[in-house]
Write a structure and sequence with these properties.
The protein is an alpha/beta fold and 344 residues long. Helix content is 43%, strand content 16%.
Length: 344
């Protein structure tokens, strides 16, 4: 029977005690802990047995000095805490990332910051001394942070491709195709005055979903009217504001494509307040296919984007980069699919 012991002074066991119990040198214990192949199976078994018997826990900081690895990955989301914890899309991304990082026996650090000031504060932490790689999600505009991290030699993968981004690897969904499918669905339902609530114009997802909407209208011979386009920021509150604005400018609209489910929920709220029946008077389509889309009144037609898979692909691409297995231009674009429900 193994007997677990501690150091004579009652503190935590040391690497020297493990070496003495296993009958090897301190360096051999370090090689076993760090997974070096330059150790015989018999010696490795002896060291691991000594670690188990003594209850030894390797010092992560000391190990990092030896291996030049922290075994830690950071996920930075450039949004407010209210949105990150309130919108299912972010939960899906975090869940997917966490599954993949945990399976690789690494630690995941979640960081949240908005704007240049928040990123500037985090830059001091996002170094090779603290993390082995960085996942960046929901970047806005021409954010310099990805290039700053790449210049430090840190592996970086982006969730969503920023407009004009050419600096590295990313994982995204086919936003244009999803928006086209949503708008074509409304056209095929006989709708002719189709408005849209856009995502942020400083994000590629917002721009590409707007472009997909316009492409579908143009292909069907409809001229996209500027008055039928209202700006949103993917939040429910912005959907409320935009829907009220659209009803003022285009009172006879008969359909709305909202570039996110939360904005579609906001649109449904306003339409109900104004006595417009959905879908008889106005059809509504969202983008996300989040769990809330099944519980709106009526249930929401929405473009499915695989958020959890997106997180897993982000993590897998980062791990491949950290381990030297990724090509210089490796990126992933995932397909979308329209899920039709009663709102259209």
């Amino acid at each position: 029977m193994n007997v677990r012991r501690t150091s004579p002074a009652g503190g935590q066991p040391t690497i020297e005690q493990v070496a003495a119990r296993a009958g090897v040198g301190r360096g051999t214990v370090s090689r076993v802990i760090n997974g070096s192949p330059q150790v015989t199976d018999r010696t490795r078994e002896a060291v691991l047995r000594a670690i188990d018997e003594l209850g030894y826990v390797p010092n992560r900081a000391a190990r990092a000095l030896v291996t030049q690895r922290t075994d830690t990955v950071a996920l930075l989301i450039s949004e407010s805490e209210e949105r990150i914890f309130g919108e299912p899309f972010f939960a899906g991304i975090v869940r997917g990332v966490s599954i993949a990082i945990t399976a690789s026996s690494r630690q995941l650090v979640l960081a949240m910051a908005q704007g240049a000031d928040g990123h500037s504060r985090l830059e001091h932490y996002l170094t090779g001394q603290h993390v082995d790689g960085v996942l960046l999600l929901s970047l806005h505009g021409d954010d310099p942070l990805p290039n700053h991290l790449l210049a430090r030699g840190l592996p970086v993968v982006l969730g969503g491709r920023p407009a004009g981004w050419t600096g590295g690897r990313y994982v995204d969904v086919d936003n244009r195709a999803g928006a086209r499918a949503a708008t074509e669905h409304l056209i095929n339902r006989g709708r002719r005055r189709i408005a849209t609530i856009t995502g942020p114009r400083d994000m590629s997802a917002g721009l590409e979903r707007l472009e997909g909407y316009r492409q579908a209208l143009a292909a069907a011979g409809h001229e996209p009217a500027a008055s039928a386009v209202a700006d949103g920021d993917f939040s429910e509150a912005s959907g409320v504001r935009a829907m009220r604005d659209l009803l003022t400018r285009v009172p006879d609209l008969d359909a709305v494509f909202a570039a996110s489910d939360p904005m579609a929920v906001g649109a449904l709220t306003v339409l109900r307040e104004q006595g417009r029946q959905v879908p008889r008077d106005v059809a509504v389509v969202g983008f996300d296919d989040s769990p809330v889309s099944q519980h709106t009144d009526p249930p929401l037609t929405s473009v499915h984007q695989p958020a959890e898979r997106m997180g897993q692909e982000m993590a897998a691409l980062l791990l491949a980069q950290m381990e030297g297995r990724a090509g210089p231009d490796d990126s992933v674009v995932l397909p979308t699919e329209l899920v039709v429900r009663q709102s259209s």
